[in-house]
């Protein structure tokens, strides 16, 4: 399962947001009886309106959304790359994630101390990004040294050197490694380094409930930074989300309406993270369940079938495939077939976003 790590300075609302994520996840944990949840790991459903529509058509007993994992990575402070705070342990955790959600404080509250004394999201982002870049810098330097030693006679090490040098030049200027363009081979070679500043990033601008509908000047500043980095910003209110967890569905609707929003930002954050990870969803539907499955963009039908079960991949014959919109327009699989909209796809078919699939396979 793909993992997103939540980072940010202390007291910006990370734990509040993470707890709201986990509380939501617990609500549908019944669907996933075998998943163990660690204290700082939350497995979260990805919201998808299509599931309910298909479930209605198929009269499905249940709906099973697809999931991603969020990890609360506490302990990033100024000096973390030098071993301050949780230091290296923190950095080891974050190297494992596929994407980073950077929570930034965009709310004012005199009762909640800001580690640097005032609310200033641009400065906060710089502090965190500098720590990440410094951590990458020492990683790349070490690796480069090793590669140079091994280079004589070892092809891989030789090929790695120019890639590492390119990255080093950026990091030395305090720029993120994500801006360096590498070819496919170089990309593979540097992958094991788990460079923090090469991971895709989303900024979660944490605002007070009053600013949820409109944003505020701090959010605009975050958007300015994100624009230069090709990153995305999601406005979220950790405070609102933590209150939503406590109240009934009916109260939720009233509360959100009074704030002038449809949701507290958490759902948008989950969706944006999913998209950031380059993931696609295909769907299966029947009387038993309607379910979303996660694949990487470009995956072919047998591999996509393998996400359900390895037997499906091994014994793959064909996949009856219909686009979600076509199925919804025709209402039933039979009607879609009559119109010629259900395709029988073979092993070279690249699965598309929103394909509704039924796999034929040998056991
Ligand atoms: P962390 O250190 O980043 O994990 O921050 P926490 O989630 O522990 O939050 C620090 C404090 O800020 C807690 O007392 C939260 O209740 C409070 N807090 C979090 N989000 C908001 C918010 O949007 N508005 C306000 N006023 N307080 C918040």
Short description:
The protein is α/β, with parallel strands linked by helices and 363 residues long.
Question: Would you mind describing this structure in some detail?
Answer:
The two termini are 26 Å apart. Helix 4 (121-150) runs antiparallel to helix 5 (155-172). This protein has helices at residues 14-27, 49-58, 87-95, 121-150, 155-172, 184-190, 217-229, 238-244, 249-259, 266-276, 301-308, 310-314, 324-330, 333-338; strands spanning 3-7, 41-45, 62-64, 67-72, 99-105, 201-206, 232-236, 279-285, 289-296, 316-323, 343-345, 355-361. Helices cover 43% and strands 19% of the residues. It has a 6-stranded mixed sheet, sandwiched between helices. The protein is flat, with a radius of gyration of 23 Å. It has 2 domains: 3-276, Rossmann fold; 298-361, Beta-grasp domain (Ubiquitin-like (UB roll), Roll), CATH 3.10.20.30.
């Amino acid at each position: 399962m793909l993992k997103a790590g939540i980072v940010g300075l202390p007291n910006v609302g990370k734990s509040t947001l993470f707890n709201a994520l986990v509380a939501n996840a617990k609500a549908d944990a019944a669907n996933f009886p075998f998943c163990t949840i660690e204290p700082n790991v939350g497995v979260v459903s990805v919201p998808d309106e299509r599931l309910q529509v298909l479930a209605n058509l198929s009269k499905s007993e249940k709906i099973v959304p697809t999931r991603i994992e969020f990890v609360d990575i506490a302990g990033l402070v100024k000096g973390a790359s030098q071993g301050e705070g949780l230091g290296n342990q923190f950095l080891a955790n974050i190297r494992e994630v596929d994407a980073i959600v950077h929570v930034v404080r965009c709310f004012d509250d005199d009762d909640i101390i800001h580690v640097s004394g005032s609310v200033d999201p641009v400065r906060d982002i710089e502090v965190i990004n500098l720590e990440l870049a410094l951590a990458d810098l020492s990683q790349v330097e070490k690796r480069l040294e090793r590669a140079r030693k091994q280079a004589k006679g070892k092809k891989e090490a030789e090929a790695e050197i120019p890639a590492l040098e390119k990255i080093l030049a950026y990091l030395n200027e305090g720029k993120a490694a994500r801006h360096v363009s590498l070819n496919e081979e170089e990309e593979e070679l540097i992958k094991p380094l788990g460079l923090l500043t090469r991971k895709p990033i989303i900024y979660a601008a944490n605002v007070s409930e009053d600013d949820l509908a409109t944003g505020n000047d701090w959010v605009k500043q975050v958007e300015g930074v994100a624009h230069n980095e090709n990153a995305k910003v999601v406005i979220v209110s950790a405070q609102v989300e933590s209150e939503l967890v406590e109240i009934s569905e009916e109260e939720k609707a009233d509360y959100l309406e009074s704030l002038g929003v449809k949701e507290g930002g958490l759902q948008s954050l989950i969706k944006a993270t999913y998209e950031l990870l380059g993931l696609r969803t295909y769907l299966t539907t029947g009387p038993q369940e309607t379910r979303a499955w996660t694949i990487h963009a470009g995956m072919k039908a047998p591999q996509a079938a393998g996400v359900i079960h390895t037997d499906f991949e091994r014994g793959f014959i064909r996949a009856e495939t219909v686009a979600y919109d076509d199925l919804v327009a025709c209402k039933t699989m039979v009607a879609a077939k009559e119109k010629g909209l259900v395709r029988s796809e073979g092993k070279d078919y690249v699965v598309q976003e929103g394909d509704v699939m039924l796999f034929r396979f040998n056991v």
